[in-house]
Design goal:
Radius of gyration: 32 Å
Strand order of the largest sheet: 2-1-5-4-3
Distance between the termini: 117 Å
Number of helices: 8
Order of helices and strands: HHEEHHEHEEHHH
Oligomer: single chain
Structural class: alpha+beta
Shape: elongated
Largest sheet: 5 strands, antiparallel
Length: 283
């Protein structure tokens, strides 16, 4: 077996210039540390802005909104969370065709539309892969030419798309509303990795807020439907009693009379029963 031995070159003392270079390299960590210290207050400020935006979103989402109304509030608060965000849209991957459910600038919705029409672009990539997509306009012309052209026409220089996943209001349903939160900036150097991290956290928390509100709304609707059903049943039972007393018929026969009148007049059964009770009171 042959062994390969790497021979070391003879040691040569460094020159004065090399000594100075070594000293500069030794001092470099101090310079880097100073730079990190300068960035820290800025990052803390950006984190506070994102936190404030989440608090605002929690306060304004009441559970009475439709999904699109809630997503509109999400877009507005996201725009306030990132200083470089000049506009924000929310794309929803619908059953037939993707759509923009919310936007802070209608002009930028056209950039989304170019992606839907070509079936490619950062917002669709983010929604389909559930990963963040961040880049500068011009870097992906070969991949998303339609999006790149539309973004350039509207003065967009940077973009950041974050996946949005909203669990269904009914916990028994596994369906999800999936889309993306799209941030557009007119500044070329906008959206650094820290912004991406902030928006990932923001979107996760925001989706939880909206999902909770939608669940509350769904529960309220279920209660209201149950109350209406009980009220309708009480009215129908009273109407059946009136018919049984007037016509001397059975409960089933009285119910059949109500059903036949409902079908003949094309009016809901509870409304027929109400009208019958009202006519008795007024007679």
């Amino acid at each position: 077996m042959r062994w390969c031995v790497k021979q070391s070159a003879p040691w040569i003392p460094p020159t004065n210039t090399e000594y100075r270079g070594m000293a500069d390299r030794l001092d470099a960590p101090e310079l880097s540390s100073s730079s990190e210290e300068e960035d820290q207050p800025d990052q803390l400020s950006r984190l506070e802005e994102t936190t404030d935006a989440l608090v605002l979103l929690r306060n304004v989402v009441t559970g009475e909104e439709t999904l699109d109304e809630a997503l509109s509030k999400l877009a507005e608060t996201a725009k306030n969370a990132i200083a470089d965000a000049d506009a924000v849209t929310v794309s929803v991957i619908a059953a037939r065709r993707p759509r923009t459910a919310a936007t802070t600038d209608e002009r930028l919705a056209q950039v989304d539309e170019e992606q839907y029409g070509s079936n490619r672009g950062p917002c669709l990539e983010s929604a389909r892969t559930l990963t963040a997509v961040r880049a500068i306009v011009g870097e992906n012309r070969d991949v998303w030419p339609e999006f790149e052209d539309a973004a350039a026409r509207h003065g967009v220089h940077a973009y950041l798309s974050i996946p949005v996943v909203l669990a269904a209001a009914d916990q028994r349903d596994d369906a999800e509303h999936v889309g993306s939160l799209n941030l557009y900036s007119l500044t070329p150097d906008a959206f650094d990795p820290f912004d991406e991290g902030l928006m990932r956290l923001f979107t996760t928390a925001a989706c939880a807020i909206i999902a909770d509100a939608r669940r509350r709304q769904h529960s309220q609707e279920q209660v209201q439907n149950m109350e209406q059903a009980l009220a309708s049943r009480a009215v129908i039972e009273q109407a059946k009693g009136v018919l049984m007393a007037v016509h001397g018929c059975t409960e089933q026969e009285a119910f059949t009379m109500l059903v036949e009148r409902s079908q003949h007049q094309n009016v809901k059964l509870r409304d027929i029963a109400r009208a019958l009770l009202s006519s008795i009171k007024n007679s």
